[in-house]
């Protein structure tokens, strides 16, 4: 780009932020990633992702990481079963042998692939953003919480600050962005470990990929991860402040199991085996979303990618895919446009409507899967995605 030696700050070390950093570095652009976690292992990385050809996989191709992705991904993970509360399989999608359309990859493996591709010292850990101070020429100075694990706290002025800092983005708030709204749906995450030896019935139920069971505003979703782990998500349409989520019940395994068993009373014993055999850790993941369209004020030296820009529920499988595509396309725009301002404008021209389509698709998916008409409505929706 014509602008001499632009400095880019990426706030957030998730898939979108790391993809952006990788693309910038492949084009010789100076980039620093600031991540609030103290280290790569500070938190569990989460479940698996299916990367789509036109979004997540395209982003990795732009980043030059396709071969690394293929080595880590699991094409067999595309297998999907859909049922109702009785456990009877209504749809069974099996991937075509030798064709990897949307292979799964564990989030931890994807993060390691991206981190390992960056120059040493690119990511500065333990940096929790508190705000962005204005600097001349539309530039910004990120401000971090005192007591961060690295020094100095002042990392200087950047030509572009990119908020890749997730659902509750401080960068979006700095730009006057809208806060997320509760979707009406809660997830309670649990894990079944050693499934292939200790719980072969669970292995057979889930297969090599995922199981989705929905009926009358309830759902059980399970996905095979590596190392013999199955992640389970009990999905409930309840008020945001329902007692199960606000009074510590999920911190008490016996209470949590009893509450979930009560809610899923009458469901197939095969499906409830996922509750019986899971460990004692129950993690509450309420689902929030942003409205379609731009939800922040335009700024020539600040923009957003991924959940910070267009937060959506997981019911279309698009969130991480769009975040990575955002990162790749913003990186190319910075490298190719004559100025940071033009790069931001070029990127946002495509990213905002693309994110809006993702939000709308996710809303349709949530409505279909968590409807009184499920499983029929869920089958129709998920069959169209397979």
Automatic annotation (TrEMBL):
Q: What class of enzyme is it?
A: oxidoreductase
User: Domain named FAD-binding: which ranges?
Assistant: 8-203, 302-357
Record-listed NADPH binding positions: 43
Annotated compartments: Cytoplasm
Tell me the cofactors it needs.
Answer: FAD
Q: What is one Pfam family matched by this protein?
A: FAD_binding_3
* Name of this protein: Flavin-dependent monooxygenase
In its UniProt entry, the species of origin is given as: Streptomyces tremellae
């Amino acid at each position: 780009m014509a602008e001499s030696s632009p400095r880019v700050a990426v706030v957030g070390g998730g898939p979108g932020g790391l993809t952006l950093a990788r693309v910038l570095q492949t084009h010789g652009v100076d980039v620093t990633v600031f991540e609030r976690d103290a280290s790569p292992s500070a938190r569990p990385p989460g479940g698996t992702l299916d990367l789509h050809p036109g979004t997540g996989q395209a982003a990795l191709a732009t980043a030059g990481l396709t071969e690394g992705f293929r080595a880590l991904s699991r094409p067999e993970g595309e297998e999907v079963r859909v049922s109702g509360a009785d456990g009877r399989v209504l749809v069974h999608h099996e991937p075509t042998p030798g064709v990897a359309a949307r292979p799964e990859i564990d989030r931890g493996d994807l993060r390691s692939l991206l981190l390992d591709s960056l120059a040493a010292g690119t990511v500065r850990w333990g940096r929790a953003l508190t705000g962005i101070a204005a600097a001349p020429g539309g530039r910004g100075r990120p401000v971090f919480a005192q007591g961060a694990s690295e020094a100095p706290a002042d990392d200087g002025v950047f030509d572009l600050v990119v908020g890749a800092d997730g659902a509750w983005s401080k960068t979006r708030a700095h730009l006057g962005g809208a806060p997320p709204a509760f979707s009406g749906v809660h997830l309670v995450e649990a894990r079944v470990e050693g499934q292939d030896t200790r719980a072969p019935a669970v292995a057979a139920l889930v297969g090599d990929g995922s199981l989705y069971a929905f009926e009358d505003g309830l759902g059980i979703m399970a996905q095979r991860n590596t190392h013999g782990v199955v992640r389970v998500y009990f999905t409930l349409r309840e008020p945001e402040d329902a007692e199960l989520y606000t009074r510590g019940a999920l911190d008490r395994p016996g209470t949590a199991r009893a509450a979930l068993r009560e809610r899923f009373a009458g469901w197939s014993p095969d499906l409830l085996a996922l509750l019986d055999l899971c460990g004692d850790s129950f993690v509450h993941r309420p689902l929030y979303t942003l409205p379609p369209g731009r939800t922040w004020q335009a700024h020539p030296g600040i923009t957003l990618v991924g959940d910070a820009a267009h937060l959506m529920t997981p019911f279309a499988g698009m969130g991480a895919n769009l975040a990575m595509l955002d990162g790749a396309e913003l990186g190319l725009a910075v490298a190719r446009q004559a100025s940071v301002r033009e790069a931001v404008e070029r990127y946002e021209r495509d990213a905002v409507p693309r994110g809006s389509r993702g939000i709308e698709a996710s809303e349709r998916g949530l409505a279909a899967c968590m409807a009184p008409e499920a499983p029929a409505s869920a089958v129709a929706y998920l069959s169209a995605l397979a």
